[in-house]
Each structure stands twice: as C-alpha cells, then as structure tokens.
Amino acid sequence: MENPVTSKCCNHQPWFVLLVFFVFCIELFSFDYSGFTAKKSALVTVLDDNHGNVINTQSSLPHDFTEITNASVYPLPKTDEKGDLKVGTEIDSCVGRYIFVHDLPSRFNEDLVNNCRLLTRGTDKNMCPYLDNLGFGPEIENPEDVLINNSWFLTNQFLLEVIFHNKMKRYECLTNDSSIASAIYVPFYAGLDMSLYLWGFNTTVRDSASLGLVKWLSEKPEWKRMWGRDHFLVAGRIAWDFRRQSDNETDWGSKLRFLPESKNMSMLSIESSSWNNDYAIPYPTCFHPSKDSEIFRWQDRMRRQNRQYLFSFAGAPRPEYQNSIRGKIIDQCLASKSQCKLLDCNYGTTNCDNPVNVMKVFQSSIFCLQPPGDSYTRRSIFDSILAGCIPVFFHPGTAYAQYIWHLPKNYTAYSVYLPVKDLSEWKINLNETLLRMPEDRILRLREEVIKLIPRVVYASSRSRSETLEDAFDLAVKGILDRIESVRVMIREGKDPSIGFADGDDYKYTFSTYGNGN
C-alpha cells in the first residue's frame, strides 16, 4: 500500500523541484550579497547632496584624543536613473583637499577691516586704502614702464591674512560639511587685531581677542574631532609677535600661540618661529597677475634685463641692533661706487613702499643683498626674486629655514650664502666675492630665480590660474600634507601631540647649512 504522503509528492515532483530550486537561488543570492557588503563594511559611504562628495564612515580609532571621520575617502559609484552602475566613474578631485572655513563672529575679522583707521594708532599711516581690491591695495597708476599695467598694486606687507582669506573664498574645494573636510581654516585676522593694541595697552587688552577665539573654537563640534590639530590660521605678522612669554606689560605682542588650544593649531605667517606648529609662507609682493600669460610675459622680460650693477641693497641701517651687519653692507656698497646701487629706505628718504622704486633697482642688479633686519626675514627677498635678481643671504633664518613649501631645499641652486654669525666675524669683501662668481653659474642661478616667480606671488583673487601654482596654492598643499601626517600618526596608534608644538632650538643654527658659497 502506498504512503499517501510520498504518493502525493511524487505525483507533483516537477513543481516541487522547481520550488526547491527557487528557494535555493534566493538563499544563494542573499549569501553572496551579504558577503559583498561585509567586505565593504569598513568603507561604508554616504553621499553628500550639497557637494557630491563622499563621507567615510569607517569606525574611528579607539583613542580618546581624537575622532577621525575622513582618514580614507572613497567616491561612490555613479548610477543611472534606473540605479544601474555607470561605467567609467569619475574620481572626485577634491578628495583629501576639502577645506571647511569657520564662520567666525565679525569681531575676529570683518570688524577689524571696517575699523581700519584704528589699525595704526600712534602713527600717521592710514591702512584703509591698502584694504582695497581684496587686500591688494590701490592699483599702481604710473608704472613708468618698469611694471606691467593692471597687475601691480600698492600692497601692504602685513595684509597676508586678508589676502589669504579672500583667495580662500574662491578655493575650488571648499565644503560646508566639516565631516568631509581635510582641514579647518580659521579666518582670524590676528595681525590686524594686534595692530590695534601695539602701543599703550596692557596684556589683558592685547590677549582679549585671542582668548575669545579659542573659547569659541573649542565649543564647536569640529574641534573635538582632532582637538584642533586639523585647524590652521594665517597671520600677516611674524610668528614671534604672537609668542609673548610672560604677562609683563613691557613685553611685546600677544600670547595667542602659547594658549593651550592654540598650541594644537598650525599657523602660517610671513615668518615662522622656532616652534614646530608655525610655518612661513611668502610675504605679499605687489605683483598680483590675473592670468598665467602675465607671469610668462614678466619672466621673459626679466630674462632680457640689462643689469648694470653687480649688487644692490634696499634698506636702512639698524644701529639699534648691536650685531646688525647692515652698516657694513651699506659701507661696502657705497665704497664699490658703480658696482653697487643703494636704495636708502631710511624714514623720510626714498619711498621703498613703492614697487616702481624698488623694482627699478633690482631689475638692474645681478645680486640683491638680503641681511636680516628687525627680524630674520624681509619682503625684499621676494621682490628680488620677482626682479630676477639673485638673493644673497647671510643667515639661514632669512629664507632657508623658513619657506620650506615655496623655495627649493637645495638653496645653492637659486641663491648665494655668505654666513655671518656675528658682526665681529665680518671678513667679507662683497665686491671681490661676487666678482669671482663664474658667468655660467650666474646664468644658472638667475634662471632658477626667474622660475620661482609663480611660486612666490599671490595671484589675483578674482581669477584662477590655468597651469601654475601660486604662493596660496602651495601653502594650502603644505598645510593639507601637514594635517594628513598627523592623521597618519593617529591611525598608527601614536600620540599626535608628540612633537606637534615642540620648540626646535636647531632650526636657525648655521651648522645645518654649511660654510656658504
């Protein structure tokens, strides 16, 4: 007698087989898909609607000092209207380059510009005209055939923070989503703020804005991601002006860079200090080209210049500084007569703020002397590069230890180094030393100097270069690399505070740079 159950199954065997096969396929598909997604679980991505970018949601490292949200960023594959994958997906060129700009209260930037007449209290200088044209200053109306029309401005050397901020507003990889940003820019005009209170104000007043800034920043969610180590600011004064080491009323500057929160940030300025979280970027010159063709035209013009002077110096003596070598340089320049051109920048003499006067001298010179002044660095370094004039340095802190993102590491390729540690060690005869330089080496040095021109100018904020990187581009690239190196440390389980803001006592020592050439 047949079993009724098996009999029924056998009678419908084809349908039963199909049912089992269908269930098996469903299970297999589910297994394969879960395996695929499991492999991707470390790289789950979310598309940001505003920017078309990808936010990495990989779980953060188990460290209490930070929370990484964009250690690795991968673009999502693009799909068509049906949701099918498109072939030939374009990669987001801004991955690793996104910058989030803090919208600071106006007291930290905009109000300082609006109160420009107060920026130079105690002097007769009005800073307001220099803030025209997005910080470039008034356009030079009479270039006297020394400059190129429409590209040169009366730019104040202390307005880097304003110029940088305006250029950042046109940066191609800005984002309103801080979670995908590789860096956080803090547009605090620290130099302008300090200019308000340079003389006659106590330390409490001088430090007020700095204290207010770090309090504001530390309360923002962006701060807690890396405790400020992905934040950077830009200052238009030398970094030493923000490193007052005591609260003695007679001490200079503010203590911004010694505040605990500020130690976690990086600062870009016209001259760095000896601390590792300060970086130097070029002084603003007066040349702000709007097109690459203007730079190429200028470079060609500098190659064709007739240089009638062996060397030149634009500046003034510094008798108040015991070890200043400027007096010696001026004496030898005057003694060299037709071999040297001196542009006397003493108060009340030639207007050395006018680039027509400066460039006229530098374009006519083979070498331009660059001794330290009130500090290690000076804008004249970059003026001489613009003029195709080979810079002569006497201290490593004037350029070599400073502008590591903008000038070649091989300093002998573009400059002459005559180290002088102390005025008592001065044994140089400038005329004889420079006359001994072989002609073929002079030509090589000058060509390298002329090639550096695009790297040391801040191009027009209203346009974007087609092929060249300017000083702003290289500064952004440098700070992004700096912050990424901190992320690498965190991913490796290291403490990012180690070495981040340490002092480097050897940064400006002579031994690192040899005996000159």
TrEMBL record:
It comes from the Eukaryota. Keywords: Glycosyltransferase, Golgi apparatus, Membrane, Signal-anchor, Transferase, Transmembrane, Transmembrane helix. Residues 94-427 form the Exostosin GT47 domain. It is found in: Golgi apparatus membrane. The chain crosses the membrane at residues 12-31. Pfam families: Exostosin_GT47. PANTHER family: EXOSTOSIN HEPARAN SULFATE GLYCOSYLTRANSFERASE -RELATED, XYLOGLUCAN GALACTOSYLTRANSFERASE GT14-RELATED. This is Exostosin GT47 domain-containing protein. It comes from Gossypium trilobum.
